[in-house]
């Protein structure tokens, strides 16, 4: 079917990209848990029931806004990619329905609920500061259960399903992240069956969902504590002044202490009338050289964004990344050394 082809094609493309990213990364960021809740909508023009009992007819249903709950366990591979297994519950009540003859009526107590199981793959990207965004796709199955309300009968089917996801997140701390996302859920047509009371044959359903949720994500692996930020004694005004900003393991976001150091550097630049600010990012030796070079550039970019937020003109700031080539503490390869995970700010 077209739905299977679209979802499987999307999933294969994402999985292939994620697999390539994982192979190039030697230091994954680890496991996480997430929980979310929100609202669920079923488009009125996307929901039809077809019974083939005493004559063929199609009834259209108008649905009330429902609710959705979701929980997931996932693994962050670093370098933008992560994957998770998610279980979600959705529930919507019927507002009214119209027969194929044109007559309409309310339906007291009628509702549909779903229980989906999805494997999702995400691509994360930074937006600056503590903000980030992600695009994702998932495939799996969905149990669809309809209860007409006028009796205790349930009609159910388990169908192939998939979803497309857009997510916006804010890093609250090293281990906690708040996020909001939109999900477009697609599924195969359901052939709902049960001990029929209203119909001689199973009911057919065409259904899609739009879901908005707010959630929280918790990193199960605590990052190593970065050492207290260090900076040299201020030299005479005519000489450069240097500050050092430290980062958590495999992180490029500014902690509260790092933001304080960036603020001090911005104040010093204004005090001494600095014409140029040079920011250089560094990493430890844990991980591949190519990944560490990119990580050092992200750290330099995060410091630049902090300086700009503090009123420094972007044109005054030059950034570069050294990866693991200029270590503060000399170590062998694959060593997680906190003092090497840094960015320097030099005022000229």
Short description:
The protein is 17% helix and 46% strand.
Describe the structure.
By secondary structure, this protein is of the alpha+beta class. The protein has two domains: 2-219, Porin (Beta Barrel), CATH 2.40.160; 241-347, OmpA-like domain (60s Ribosomal Protein L30, Chain: A, 2-Layer Sandwich). It is 17% helix and 46% strand. The protein has helices at residues 2-23, 256-272, 289-309; strands spanning 30-41, 48-51, 57-63, 66-78, 81-98, 104-105, 111-128, 131-147, 155-171, 176-187, 190-192, 203-206, 208-219, 241-246, 277-281, 317-321, 342-347. The strands form two sheets. Strands 1-4-5-7-8-9-10-13 form an eight-stranded antiparallel barrel. A four-stranded mixed β-sheet has the order 14-17-15-16. A hairpin with a 5-residue loop joins β5 and β6 (104-105). It is elongated, with a radius of gyration of 27 Å.
What's the structural blueprint in terms of helices and strands?
Elements: H1 2-23, E1 30-41, E2 48-51, E3 57-63, E4 66-78, E5 81-98, E6 104-105, E7 111-128, E8 131-147, E9 155-171, E10 176-187, E11 190-192, E12 203-206, E13 208-219, E14 241-246, H2 256-272, E15 277-281, H3 289-309, E16 317-321, E17 342-347
Parallel strand pairs: 15-16
Antiparallel strand pairs: 1-4, 1-13, 2-3, 2-12, 3-5, 4-5, 5-6, 5-7, 7-8, 8-9, 9-10, 10-13, 11-12, 14-17, 15-17
Descriptive keywords:
single chain; 348 residues; alpha+beta; Porin; 60s Ribosomal Protein L30, Chain: A; 2 domains; 8-stranded antiparallel barrel; 4-stranded mixed β-sheet; 3 helices; elongated
